[in-house]
Design goal:
This protein has 335 residues and is an alpha/beta fold. It has 2 domains: 5-177, 3-Layer(aba) Sandwich (Peroxisomal Thiolase, Chain A, domain 1), CATH 3.40.47; 182-334, 3-Layer(aba) Sandwich (Peroxisomal Thiolase, Chain A, domain 1), CATH 3.40.47.10. Helix content is 33%, strand content 23%. It has 11 helices and 13 strands. The chain has helices at 22-28, 33-40, 55-70, 94-102, 118-131, 157-160, 207-212, 227-248, 266-276, 287-290, 297-307, and strands spanning 5-14, 19-21, 44-46, 79-83, 108-112, 137-144, 166-175, 180-188, 196-197, 224-225, 258-261, 316-323, 327-334. The strands form 4 sheets. Strands 1-7-6-4-5 form a 5-stranded mixed beta sheet, with helices on both faces. The chain has a 4-stranded mixed beta sheet with strand order 8-13-12-11, sandwiched between helices. Strands 2-3 form a two-stranded antiparallel ribbon. Strand 4, helix 4 and strand 5 (108-112) form a beta-alpha-beta unit. Helix 3 packs across helix 4 (94-102) and helix 8 runs parallel beside helix 9. The mean pLDDT is 95. Bound molecules: coenzyme A.
């Protein structure tokens, strides 16, 4: 019996047209271009200004591009995995909306809620389904509209300057060649759930409780983040999970052809690069242009890296992420 491997056969992305430069944020939230660049590396991000653009619609555009890139038809897709922390609706999930938008047959659709690690969690699920022989072509999508939920007053500046809107997608396909996903490693540590979170509205703060609560002050309706603490944990976990992937395949940092870290903060990426002893051309960053797009950041960066000819057949590609949950994850891929 032939071994079934799974590979990334196509990648696509979509970002809204509306570019929001740091200079614009200077005008609305008591921040400076210098502060944002120095602390995060971000120069601009995209924020949706077209009311018709939803998380699932942006995911659809990214998915259409990925399907085109894979050279298959939409009806060749036999499962959907949709990662987002900013879904169109509380329920149902965005995967079913993607199925509707793509006008394809009634295939399964699963939503993943693992924030910045969401794309790699999705990739890992797809990898298992493909290797088990259950499916042949799976769409893994990460899409986020952060802008509508951010506090754009000076009160929200520590969080709001970081996040951007965007969508990325990959088609994961079965192959009998010696190529594709070598491993995925997934982790979580829920004791730090509230260190980076959007708490309300949700069942813990159900609308009935809010109406009855005299102390309700409207806080908690935009993301909260203990930035310093997140940073310290991120740099440790990124390094750990990348080494976990390398050790699993008996590889060393110098064997990595390209590392694409989740685009959380340029300083985090630079720190990991230094810890692993990687050269500049071994790491791909584009946070400068898009900010942190959470589940979308890795597929957007991957497509840009491909367009910039940063990957060739046989290369070792490492993906790694850390974020809210906390959750963190890595994937090692023979391109
Ligand atoms: N503009 C100007 N000043 C700001 C600011 C902003 N947008 N946001 C915060 N500040 C101020 C703070 O109020 C504080 O002022 P003070 O010293 O007078 O109290 C000062 O800048 C330093 O704040 P601090 O939070 O300690 O800064 P930092 O060096 O930790 O940088 C982050 C903040 C958010 C950039 C950094 O902690 C970080 O990147 N953390 C990881 C975040 C992340 O990656 N999140 C996503 C995970 S996937």
């Amino acid at each position: 019996m032939k071994v079934i491997n799974s590979k990334i056969s196509g990648v696509g992305y979509f970002v809204p047209d509306n570019v929001v430069k740091n200079s614009h944020l200077e005008k609305i939230m008591n921040t400076t271009d210098e502060w944002i660049r120095e602390r995060t590396g971000i120069e601009e991000r995209r924020w949706v200004n077209d009311q018709k653009l939803t998380t699932s619609l942006m995911g659809t555009y990214a998915a259409e591009n990925a399907i085109l890139d894979a050279g298959i038809q939409r009806d060749d897709i036999d499962f959907i995995i949709f990662s987002t922390l900013s879904p169109d609706y509380y329920f149902p999930g965005s995967g079913v909306l993607l199925q509707r938008n793509l006008k394809i047959k009634e295939i399964g659709a699963l939503d993943v809620r693992n924030q910045c690690s969401g794309f790699i969690y999705g990739l890992s699920i797809a990898d298992q389904y493909i290797k088990s022989g259950m499916y042949k072509n799976i769409l893994v999508v990460g899409s986020e509209i952060h802008s509508g939920g951010l506090d754009k007053t000076p009160r929200g500046r520590a969080v709001s300057v970081i996040f951007g809107d965007g969508a990325g997608a990959a088609v994961i396909s079965a192959t009998n060649e010696d190529e594709g996903i070598l491993s995925t490693h997934l982790h979580s540590e829920g004791k730090f759930a509230e260190e980076l979170a959007l708490i309300k509205p949700a069942t813990t703060f159900w609308i009935d409780k809010i109406i009855d609560d005299e102390n309700e002050d409207g806080s908690g309706y935009s993301p909260v983040m203990n930035g310093n603490f997140v940073f310290k944990n991120a740099v440790i976990r990124f390094e750990e999970v990348i080494f976990e992937a390398l050790n699993y395949s008996n590889l060393k940092p110098e064997d990595i052809s390209l590392l694409i870290p989740h685009q959380a903060n340029l300083r985090i990426s630079q720190f990991i690069q230094k810890r692993l002893g990687l050269d500049d051309d071994q790491v791909f960053n584009n946070i400068m242009k898009y900010g942190n797009t959470t589940a979308a950041s890795i597929p957007i960066a991957l497509k840009e890296a491909m367009d910039n000819k940063k990957l060739k057949k046989g290369d070792i590609l490492c993906l790694a992420a850390f974020g809210s949950g906390f959750t963190w994850a890595s994937a090692l891929i023979k391109w």
